[in-house]
Amino acid sequence: MTPEPTAPRHSLIENAQGLTAGMVLTSLGVTFIGQAGLLTGQTAGIAFIIAYATGWGFGPVFFVVNLPFYYFAVRQMGWGFTLRTLGCVAGVSVLTAIAPGLVPLGAVPPLSAAILGGCVAGVGLLALFRHGASLGGVGIMAIYLQDRHGIRAGWVQMAVDLCVLVLAFAVVPPLSVLMSIAGAAVMNMILAFNHRRDRYVAI
Asked: Which regions span the lipid bilayer (predicted)?
């Protein structure tokens, strides 16, 4: 019988570089998506919907939308995971606010932005997951369900993302929503195929 793989432990420096890279990549992916007037799923998608409807900045809205989920994170995942997640959410909130000035993308074809943004954000989230963090909200529950019940995190997030993107029809043109769904599918497929407890999970 093949023994069940154990989760390798990362050092403080390894976690720091992994989480930093994850925040940067996720912020870049979100910037691609936002510059094209698209959105994604999870709490980021909710933040995009609120931002488009009100004109408020994505970063502050994203940070506030995630606040209610930290109680669940502390109870089910522990303080270490919760604090890392809080730091990553704050980091992405700041980075997405300043990214357009640092990386002026200009006019990005929407479908290209959806696919590229989904790929980059997916790899960024994968880095965060593998270093014991998430970007709050659905990510917290998805990791919990995968670690405790074996339900793939990517599939959980994809199901929730579809619900969020359906709500987006109220504030975003239908074609943009369809392209956003394609981007969300790419992002979550990266997570579903690569973030697997039987292959590699690290904290």
From this structure: 12-34, 46-73, 85-105, 111-129, 150-171, 177-194
